[in-house]
Design brief:
Elements (H helix, E strand, L loop, with lengths): L7 H10 L7 H6 L3 E9 L2 E8 L8 E8 L4 E5 L8 H13 L9
């Protein structure tokens, strides 16, 4: 049996169904956050990228996130807004997904 392949929509639905607010409109608006539709999934876990902008004068920066399906929770991987470009954030998310699993990624 193959593990489920997650889309961003699946992640949003699971997070909401678990009573969490990561993707709520208020939360997304507060952080001026956007979530990329691209999900990186592999033995190392399930990762996606968000971007946030402090205010209109600030640059939009990118954050790698990990989805934990058992808890339907989302963790920040590394530092918040650690990446200056979407390309770098997605490269890191892909690298992490391809890595051997860790105990934390199995949740």
């Amino acid at each position: 049996m193959h593990p489920k392949t997650y889309t961003l929509s699946d992640i949003q639905t699971a997070n909401r169904a678990a009573g969490r607010y990561f993707f709520s409109p208020d939360t997304m608006r507060y952080f001026r956050s956007r979530a990329s539709e691209r999900v990186h999934q592999g033995p190392g876990g399930i990762y996606f990228v968000t971007s946030e902008q402090y205010d209109r004068a600030s640059p939009r920066l990118f954050t790698v996130r990990r989805f934990l399906p058992g808890a339907a929770d989302i963790d920040t991987v590394g530092s918040f807004q650690a990446h200056a470009t979407a390309h770098r954030a997605h490269a890191e998310a892909a690298r992490l997904a391809a890595a051997p699993p860790t105990h934390a990624a199995e949740n």
